[in-house]
Amino acid sequence: MPVTYFTPVSLQVYKGLDIITNKVTEEEQAQCRHHMISFVDPLVSGYTVVDFRNKALSLISFLICPTLHSEIPESSRSN
């Protein structure tokens, strides 16, 4: 069974804040699939906790039952 990591840390969604938010390295990300990391520009977006919750629920729904979805929600993919 493949391993999937879903970050519970809402600050890790922001691009460019790798050290501040203690994000996993690219090497660590290559070991298993990571979601909800580095997809929001902190200088442009008005991203809220409600946005995080909505994306997280969409991703969780996909991970639980992928046959109901055509693909992983775009905004929850890691780089």
Automatic annotation (TrEMBL):
One of its GO terms (cellular component) is mitochondrion. One of its GO terms (biological process) is tRNA modification. Transmembrane segments: none annotated. It comes from the Eukaryota. Gene3D superfamilies: P-loop containing nucleotide triphosphate hydrolases (3.40.50.300). InterPro entries: Dimethylallyltransferase, P-loop_NTPase. Keywords: ATP-binding, Nucleotide-binding, Transferase. The keyword Disulfide bond does not apply. The keyword Nucleotide-binding applies. GO terms for molecular function: ATP binding; tRNA dimethylallyltransferase activity. It holds the Pfam family IPPT. Belongs to the IPP transferase family. PANTHER family: TRNA DIMETHYLALLYLTRANSFERASE. This is Uncharacterized protein. The lineage of its organism: Eukaryota, Metazoa, Chordata, Craniata, Vertebrata.
